[in-house]
């Protein structure tokens, strides 16, 4: 690859002159600048991001950390952050933290000097760990609130209440919550919303789990749910709900005639299930875009505007065929 030294030799000027002409053109006279730019174009010179970062203190890279890159829920978040970062002139670095707190912490430490900021989706860190991380580098969280870092919240608890109202309208008086990982902040928020809403409506609510947020965990969750005798279940996410649907089918349990099931996230494929899954839907891609705009406001307050501490994305219940009247 051509370097500024090559350009300097062809132009008959010092390398420092080439550097100024390409990074601060107003500091070089027009004739010299035009000559340098012409030679740079002929050589197909591409500025070094690392070198530019050393002089500006910026790398042009933003890290996006997700707990499980194979979970379709994060596809739209990743797409949203990618589009918005590209429009802002940044490159996205994607990291799968494997649902592990230690991996997330280690990744944040390693990326501190090689990225300009971080977006944490569904962080598994504690409040103190997040506070410490936010004090060391610009970051924004998605679905993980803390007082020290700006966050984008997807209001799934609000739609969970809609789900309970929907089930109550079908005559259901008992519901199970098939819970997600204990380290998931969203998991606790959803259970609290179910518990409070069920109590107000005179419904019995039971929490089972924790279960990994994957389809493979659906069999265990389905078996445990059937043991309770309830007529309806709300799963932590769509993947778990889809696994439960498959297990119910294997055991000859009809959905929704024998039991109704509600998922969360409205991932790609939720409407292809048999039966199609009733689930909580939200603007996931938009959440990724908003997270980037909030991070940009930290990195460049003049251009990015006043930094926001909180953005809440609305959700709604998308009713499909996996819910119906409670069995007599």
TrEMBL record:
InterPro entries for this protein: HTH_LacI, LacI/GalR-like_sensor, Lambda_DNA-bd_dom_sf, Peripla_BP_I
The UniProt record lists the keyword DNA-binding: yes
Indicate the segments forming the HTH lacI-type domain, all copies. 2-56
Ordered alphabetically, the record's keywords are:
DNA-binding, Transcription, Transcription regulation
MF GO annotations: DNA-binding transcription factor activity; transcription cis-regulatory region binding
Q: Which SMART domains match?
A: HTH_LACI
Indicate yes or no for the key word Transcription: yes
SUPFAM superfamilies for this protein: lambda repressor-like DNA-binding domains, Periplasmic binding protein-like I
**Could you tell me which Gene3D superfamilies the record lists for this protein?**
3.40.50.2300, lambda repressor-like DNA-binding domains (1.10.260.40)
Q: What is the name listed in the Swiss-Prot or TrEMBL entry for this protein? A: LacI family transcriptional regulator
Provide the species name.
Sinomonas humi
């Amino acid at each position: 690859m051509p370097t500024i030294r090559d350009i300097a030799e062809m132009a008959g000027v010092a390398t420092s002159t080439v550097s100024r002409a390409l990074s601060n053109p107003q500091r070089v006279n027009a004739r010299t600048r035009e000559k340098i730019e012409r030679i740079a174009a002929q050589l197909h010179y591409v500025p070094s991001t690392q070198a530019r970062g050393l002089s500006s203190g910026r790398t042009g890279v933003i890290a996006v950390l997700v707990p499980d890159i194979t979970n379709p829920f994060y596809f739209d978040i990743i797409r949203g952050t990618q589009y918005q970062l590209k429009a802002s002139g940044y490159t996205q670095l994607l990291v799968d933290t494997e649902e592990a707190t230690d991996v997330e912490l280690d990744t944040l430490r390693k990326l501190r000097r090689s990225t300009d900021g971080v977006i944490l989706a569904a962080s598994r860190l504690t409040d103190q760990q997040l506070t410490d991380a936010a004090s060391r580098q610009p970051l924004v969280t998605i679905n993980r609130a803390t007082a020290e870092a700006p966050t984008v919240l997807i209001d799934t608890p609000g739609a969970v209440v809609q789900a309970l109202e929907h089930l109550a309208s079908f005559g259901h008086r008992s519901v199970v919550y098939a819970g997600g990982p204990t380290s998931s902040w969203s998991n606790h928020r959803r259970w609290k919303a179910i518990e409070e809403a069920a109590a107000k409506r005179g419904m019995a609510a039971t929490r089972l789990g924790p279960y990994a947020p994957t389809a493979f965990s659906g069999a265990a969750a389905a078996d445990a749910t059937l043991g309770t005798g309830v007529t309806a279940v709300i799963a932590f996410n769509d993947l778990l709900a889809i696994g439960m649907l498959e297990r119910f089918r294997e055991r000859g349990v009809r959905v929704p005639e024998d039991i109704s099931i509600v998922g969360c996230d409205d991932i790609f494929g939720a409407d292809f299930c048999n039966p199609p899954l009733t689930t909580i839907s939200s603007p996931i891609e938009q959440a990724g875009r908003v997270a980037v705009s909030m991070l940009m406001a930290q990195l460049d307050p003049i251009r990015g505007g006043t930094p926001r501490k909180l953005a809440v994305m609305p959700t709604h219940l998308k009713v499909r065929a996996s819910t119906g009247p409670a069995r007599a």
